[in-house]
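Batch manifest, entry 17 of 40.
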Amino acid sequence: MDFEQEIKKALKKEIGRKVELEIPANPEFGDYAFPCFSLAAQYKKSPALIAEELADKLDIKNVEVTNVGPYINFITDKALESEQILKKVFKEKKYGSEKKKEETIVVDYSAPNVAKHMGIHNLRSTVIGQSIYNLYKYVGYNVVGVNHIGDWGTNFGQLIVGIKKYSSLEKIKKVQDLNKIYVKFHQEVEKHPEMEQLARDEFARLENGEAEAKKYWKKFVEVSLKDYDKIYERLGIKFDSTKGESEYIPHINDTLKVLKRNKLTKESDGALVVNVGRKIPPCLLKKKDGSTLYGLRDITAGLYRLKKYDPTKILYVVDVAQSLHFEQWFKVMEKLNKKNKDKFAHVVFGRLSFKDGKMSTRKGKVIVLEEVLDKAVDKVYDIIKEKNPKLKNKKQIAEKVGIGAVVFNDLFNDRIHNIIFDWDRVLDFEGATGPYVQYAYARSSAILRKYGKKVEEKVDYRLLTEDSEVALVKLLGDFPNVIQESVEEYKPSNIAKYLVRLAQIFNNFYGLLPVMSEDEKLTKARILLVHCVRKVIGQGLELLGLEHPEEM
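Output type: structure tokens
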């Protein structure tokens, strides 16, 4: 039975409307509470008297009902609750998951710009998007993960000009080589502004399909994707579709025909735009020279996805700086079809920075993501050598924990907040961090290895009565709700915060109570509890895209 729902149902029957319950700060008062202040006008009595009268009337199976002042308190049957929750965790292959749905969700995430390093600023979209993808899949949706590579734009003209002037195509072996050219171009353009026009001309040649320009562009894409794939592999990031903006260029004219047929386009100072509202600037489609802009390319990609996937929703995991851009072209999609208003969603997240200030690709001030991952892994390796020198496979475990630390640091923060990256906090094994949660998983694994027997669900659940045991069971029971909230709010941070709470209570339990003792029945009950905690921590970490080493 679902105690919370049964209590709500009983209250609704007496009061005549739906109610919400509270969790008492002091466990001695019960597991749930209902304050009667809101009923004073309805019953024309004091809240304390209402609580007393209602407590006498309520009869809920396996729930003791009491009242303290204006509060009705509910104490559930702990043995029954433990049995229901732990059996469910034990039996279900994916606890908290749901049956397969017919609906499709498209998640657009990561989307690095070709010819530029994947910097620390690319991390947020990548890991938030992957976690949202994982969550939707876990609750039964058909999910399509899309990496919309930025492989089109004037900056490619700038690179072509820069390479012709300062290097050669043969010397371009990796993204770092392209970054140097990009920075050099922007340094020189301040002295020679005419170079901007040369770059625009080169991009126009690329848009017109000229062979030489395409040769340069293909090299940029090839070199970049090779570097990005290495990073994705380390982060455990996977996509169902990787398409550059360039792949939608052949469909641009069809999009323009659709927009013109719906009488949405107009010229403004030589540029092609769509007016989307009085309070919002027009959505720009084409420049004066006829080159396409992000708005037109995103509309084209949006139309393609609607046709190909017939999705319930398309989620764009992109930082807050692009909010106006998405508002503009989403309005265009809505003007094309009112149903599109509910299909497109911008999953906004705040900016990420280091303590020493802002990043700029043009000035060469980019914190390279690969270097951050390497540094995290090296730091964890040093910690492992110091704290657990006899541990086998130190390097492999350092890779899992170091990268997990970086990813968890991002996901633990509410996505809408800006983040300042702080090494000390990220790698604190005692704080609200990835290593702390991973260590709880490793500790529970060690306990089960030491036990060395098969875990059974047939235990005496009446023995799990200690406060830390009851708290663990309750928190395990809340995991499906946390998953649902995370999906509805597009917030993996709910899962990350839940895992920290679970690890904290588990460590408290482990510190206070012996799991294994001469009392075989008690040992079996506590081993089942440890097994269920381990399982939920493991599943939670997987939803966030983190690995869970058996030893640390």
